[in-house]
Amino acid sequence: MREMTKLIELGEQKREEVENERKEAVDKIWVLRDIIRDLEYRVEVKAEVEAELKKLVAELEDVIEQQTRAIDESNRQLEECKGDVDVRTLKERIVYLENEAQKLRLNSELAGGEGALKELQSQLNLFESSIDKKTKD
Asked: What pTM was estimated for this model as a whole?
């Protein structure tokens, strides 16, 4: 009977050990399930954040593209303005040179007039000399 009691006690101890191990395993399973749920939640949150960031990146890329086009357009307009300034400057220079040419024409006409005057004066002097000569004779 003692042997039976010992066997029963040993069986009871083993059953208690197995039951304790089972309880520990169940507790570990619950802990692991909580960890898994937490990790799944984190993954879900990260996926949402990633989607929002991708959307933001796309919006920023659109803004950058629009600003780049605006800058290109501004540069094009600036170059056109520079061209306009060059054209205006050239037109002003042409007007100035035309005025200078007109002045030179007037001066040359006056100089030609002076030459004609000198020629006329020399002819008058010759005429006067010839009259003086004729009157003396």
From this structure: 0.47
